[in-house]
Design goal:
The protein is an all-alpha fold and about 100 residues long. The protein is built from six helices and no strands. The radius of gyration is 14 Å and the shape is globular.
């Protein structure tokens, strides 16, 4: 999913907790994302919407945006995932996510 950024993402996760890279690979990707109910690009777009609503996760947000595009989603689809986040999620979160999207 992360392509050439995999090593950087793994290092970042390890910086948060040494067990997080293995947990992420086994659970988040091995059990959750490996399910075939949704296409991978759609799952990544859901991640974009969730991270937009949460805010303050620009690195993760950018990673999921890039993964969505790498898996076949258009830039417009990424912007659409941002647009579905309600304003009630917090002021400025959509604008902040659009600024991150400018980097994909």
């Amino acid at each position: 999913v992360y392509g050439e950024s995999t090593a950087r993402v793994t290092k970042g996760l390890a910086g948060l907790h040494p067990l997080l890279p293995a947990w992420t690979k086994e659970f988040a990707y091995g059990r959750v994302l490996a399910r075939d109910a949704l296409e991978l690009a759609t799952r990544e777009l859901l991640g974009v919407a969730i991270l937009t609503a949460l805010g303050r996760a620009d690195d993760a947000l950018l990673g999921h945006m890039r993964a969505a595009v790498r898996l076949g989603a258009s830039r417009d689809a990424v912007l659409g995932a941002i647009a579905v986040v309600p304003a009630s999620a917090g002021p400025g979160k959509r604008a902040a996510a659009r600024a991150v999207a400018a980097r994909i």
